[in-house]
Amino acid sequence: MKSNPTRRRFLKLSIGGLIGVTLGGKQLIKSASAADLPHLAEDDAQAAALKYVHASPDSEKHCANCALIQGADGEEWRPCALFPGKVVNANGWCSAYAPKPSS
C-alpha cells in the first residue's frame, strides 16, 4: 500500500502544531506574573464563602505558610490554588487554611 504524501505532510504539521501550542501555552502561563493578576476581594463570592480576609486574625496561621499558596516566598500578593486567576495577600487567611508540611 502506497502512502499519500499529502496525508503524511498533514499529519506531521498537525502533530507539530499541537506540540507547539502545548509548549507555547505552558510558556505563556509561566510568563504571566502574580503582578498581572487581580487581587482577590474579601467580598468576592468564593472568598466570602471561605471567610477570606486580607489580614489573618492569628499571627501563626496566614496564607504565606499555607500549603495552598503558590509563587515565590516574600511576595506580598501570591496565587492560591483555591482562587484561580486571582492573587491573595500573603498575610491573609481563609477557612481552608492548611499548614505547609514541615521539612
TrEMBL record:
What are the entry keywords? 4Fe-4S, Electron transport, Iron, Iron-sulfur, Metal-binding, Transport
**Does the keyword rRNA processing belong to this entry?**
no
Residues of the High potential iron-sulfur proteins family profile domain: 34-102
The UniProt transmembrane annotation reads: none
Q: Which Pfam families match?
A: HIPIP (PF01355)
What highest taxon heads this organism's lineage?
A: Bacteria
Gene3D superfamilies in the cross-refs: High potential iron-sulphur protein
Q: What does this protein do?
A: Specific class of high-redox-potential 4Fe-4S ferredoxins. Functions in anaerobic electron transport in most purple and in some other photosynthetic bacteria and in at least one genus (Paracoccus) of halophilic, denitrifying bacteria.
Query: Which family does the entry's similarity section mention?
Result: Belongs to the high-potential iron-sulfur protein (HiPIP) family.
Instruction: Relate the assembly described in the record.
Output: Homodimer.
Name assigned to this protein = High-potential iron-sulfur protein
Organism of provenance: Photobacterium sanguinicancri
